[in-house]
Design a protein that fits this description.
GO terms for molecular function: structural molecule activity. Belongs to the claudin family. This protein has helices spanning 3-26, 75-101, 112-149, 163-183, 189-208; strands at residues 31-33, 44-48, 52-57, 62-66, 159-161. By secondary structure, it is α+β, with helices and mostly antiparallel strands. Strand 3 and strand 4 form a beta hairpin.
Length: 209
């Protein structure tokens, strides 16, 4: 795979991961009510996310309510919120920086070495974004697992992983993969030497004339 094709593939993967992370952050299905074991099955399914909680009736009607207070939320929810916001911001800046640094675009400096370094910077931003998403989702999943197996949690009040967690894990994987491909654009010493040789040729020719 050529350098330009690799950059484009990495950019598309990272962009898809960022969109998936945005969807995961907005979805209310970070955890859902569990019917495992001897739990009493009711006509209401409960879903909770970072920003709201929802109740789904057996008739298909869904009622959602935003979390009332930020400070009254559990620590893991506040931490996951912060990490997802940081992840989305890093990914947004990564999208802009990567467009400037990619070989297939005519934006910014024409020097291929400079553009490669900018593309690497965009890849680093994407990797950091993916790591933040991974940390947020894993932290939330750890808390759900702890509460599920805790003896102090009533059986009919236990929760399991929601679909948003799996979307978040997929988003983190895509973003890190795309950022890694962009980081492969790092200019080697050989390429830097060739660029320096091309830039120094005209001045050398003038000296002999």
């Amino acid at each position: 795979m050529g350098g330009g094709a690799r950059e484009l593939a990495g950019y598309l993967a990272a962009l898809g991961g960022w969109v998936a992370a945005l969807a995961a952050a907005a979805l209310p299905q970070w955890r859902q009510s569990s019917y495992a074991g001897d739990a009493i099955i009711t006509a209401v399914g409960l879903h909770e996310g970072l920003w709201m909680s929802c109740a789904a009736q057996s008739t298909g009607q869904v009622q959602c309510r935003l979390h009332d207070s930020l400070l009254s939320l559990d620590v893991h929810i506040q931490t996951s919120r912060a990490l997802m916001v940081i992840s989305l911001l890093l990914g947004f800046f990564g999208i802009i920086v990567s467009v400037v640094g990619m070989k297939c675009t005519k934006v910014g400096d024409e020097d291929p070495v400079t553009k490669s370094r900018i593309a690497v910077a965009g890849g680093v931003l994407f990797i950091l974004s993916g790591l933040c998403t991974l940390a947020a989702v894993s932290l939330y999943a750890t808390q759900v697992t702890y509460e599920f197996f805790s003896a102090s949690t009533p059986i009919n009040a236990r929760y399991e992983f929601g679909s948003a967690l799996f979307v978040g894990w997929g988003a983190a994987s895509l973003t890190i993969l795309g950022g890694s491909l962009l980081c492969c654009s790092c200019p080697t010493k050989e390429r830097q030497g060739q660029q320096y040789y091309r830039q120094s040729q005209p001045s050398t020719a003038r000296e002999y004339v």
